[in-house]
User: Which sequence fits this backbone?
């Protein structure tokens, strides 16, 4: 792998930037691998990277039915934070945030992490109590968190309205200063480049159509490009997890929903933090290009259509107008949808399965982007050792049988 | 936005309706005899198909009655509407 540096930049400038190497190869799939990862999104690529780097497992293929990083990793609103309520969640998301903090150096690829602070607003007395409880829980878990009153919110984010003359005035907010945003594509590309350099085959346009098993043990996957043998198969397919799991005879506690987002036309810098509101329900940040990036709740019904209803967008814009009346003249550029895999407790599944040699990583729902590094890190451990790391052991598939659910609806920041 | 055919009020916009999730999940006859696995399946496990999905809707801003719908989860096309309690209609021509 050609390392990027000021010297490589200067060298390539001399040749007009025509000789940069490709970030990854596009190999034909081999007949068999030790591990086949199904899904070439952020989590799948991170899994491949950490399998190779942390565990020395390089006989790995990532198969992707579309193109690399064309699903939710390209469709999210790029918010990163770790201020979840319960110990299990705080541990895995905080591990992720720490990985984020060193990721550009680790990957030799600028993921453009900007820790500009994430505020979660409180609009009611109950919101205030829950938020302060969460700040305290975060601090006990070593996650940075602060409580701001309304004046503090206004000082941290001057464009926001804290007028008391609205139905749900801003009463305060939690603030995680280490939270922020990153360049979503760069994360996927950086992991893909790092995995490829360590020998992982990334096979695009290769759709898995079946999971072959012999006596309850996985032996490989049927694909649109033929059978690929594998001792271990790892499913990381986000919205399509149920479809893949069914190929192995598994039912999942997951439902797929559209989640929409949108951006405005580019504006001059006006908002230098991330603002999220559960109660009036919108979240917003400003991208480096100047677009206001907006998102909110899922469409209620099950869908694989990567699009949702206009009324869902209208609701979040109404919320935005209450919080930022100044943005009412901004024009929207475009909106889009992704398919999120939602678990009943708003927590993910990173787990072994009842089928030997089959592993699954899904259920990240509306908040998977921030977890890309830790999800891949923990899943790689689970696959390589055939047992979960203590970070992801609580996120096992069997918690729905044992009842040990991890209810993060409050911290998920998206209504579902 | 989808148009949904309420069996009593006729076709209306999706915003008038409330979504009720997967249909035909019957409450266990004998809860005391149920294993943990069977409880998990009843409470949490869902079909979630890419294709025709049997689901419940309620006309929240109309007659407020529940009914079942067969809808394709990729095209969002509503392919059948039928009463609560009725079995899922066979639709061989629209198999997922």
Assistant:
């Amino acid at each position: 792998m050609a390392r990027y540096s000021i010297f490589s930049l200067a060298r390539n400038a001399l040749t007009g930037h025509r000789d940069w190497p490709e970030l990854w190869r596009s190999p034909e799939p081999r007949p068999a691998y030790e591990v086949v990862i199904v899904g070439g999104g952020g989590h799948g690529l991170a899994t491949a990277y950490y399998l190779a780097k942390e565990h020395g497992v390089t006989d790995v293929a990532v198969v992707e039915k579309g193109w690399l990083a064309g699903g939710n990793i390209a469709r999210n609103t790029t918010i990163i934070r770790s201020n979840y309520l319960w110990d299990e969640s705080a541990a895995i998301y905080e591990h992720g945030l720490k990985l984020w903090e060193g990721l550009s150096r680790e990957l030799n690829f600028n993921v453009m992490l900007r820790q500009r602070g994430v505020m979660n607003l409180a609009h009611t007395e109950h919101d205030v109590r829950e938020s302060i409880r969460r700040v305290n829980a975060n601090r006990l878990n070593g996650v940075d968190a602060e409580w701001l009153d309304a004046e503090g919110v206004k000082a941290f984010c001057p464009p926001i309205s804290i007028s008391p003359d609205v139905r749900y005035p801003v009463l305060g907010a939690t603030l995680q200063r280490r939270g922020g945003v990153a360049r979503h594509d760069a994360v996927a590309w950086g992991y893909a480049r790092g995995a490829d350099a360590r020998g992982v085959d990334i096979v695009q346009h290769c759709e898995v159509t079946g999971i072959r098993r012999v006596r309850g043990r996985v032996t490989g996957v049927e694909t649109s490009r033929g059978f690929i043998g594998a001792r271990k198969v790892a499913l990381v397919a986000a919205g399509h997890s149920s479809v893949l799991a069914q190929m192995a005879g598994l039912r999942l506690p997951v439902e797929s929903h559209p989640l929409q987002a949108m951006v405005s036309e580019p504006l001059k810098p006006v908002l230098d933090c991330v603002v999220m509101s559960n109660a009036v329900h919108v979240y917003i940040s400003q991208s480096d290009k100047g677009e206001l990036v907006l998102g909110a709740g899922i469409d209620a019904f099950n869908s694989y259509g990567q699009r949702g209803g206009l009324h869902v967008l209208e609701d979040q814009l109404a919320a935005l107008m209450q919080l930022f009346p100044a943005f009412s003249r901004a024009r929207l550029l475009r909106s889009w949808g992704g398919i999120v895999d939602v678990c009943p407790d708003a927590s993910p599944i990173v787990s072994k399965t009842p089928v030997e040699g089959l592993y699954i990583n899904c259920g990240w729902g509306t908040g998977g982007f921030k977890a890309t590094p830790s999800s891949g890190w923990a899943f790689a451990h689970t696959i390589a050792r055939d047992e979960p790391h203590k970070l992801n052991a609580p996120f096992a598939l069997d918690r729905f049988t044992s009842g040990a659910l991890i209810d993060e609806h409050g911290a998920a920041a998206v209504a579902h | 936005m989808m148009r949904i055919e309420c069996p009593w009020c006729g076709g209306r916009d999706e915003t008038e309706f409330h979504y009720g999730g997967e249909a035909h999940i019957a409450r266990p006859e004998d809860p005391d005899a149920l294993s943990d696995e069977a409880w998990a399946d009843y409470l949490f496990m869902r079909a979630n198909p890419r294709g025709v999905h049997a689901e419940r809707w309620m006309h929240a801003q109309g007659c407020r009655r529940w009914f079942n719908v067969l809808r394709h989860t990729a095209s969002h096309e509503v392919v059948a509407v039928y009463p609560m309690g009725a079995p899922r209609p066979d639709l061989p021509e629209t198999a997922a």
About this structure: Residues 32 and 229 of chain A are 4 Å apart (CA to CA). Chain A has a mean pLDDT of 96. The radius of gyration of chain A is 21 Å.
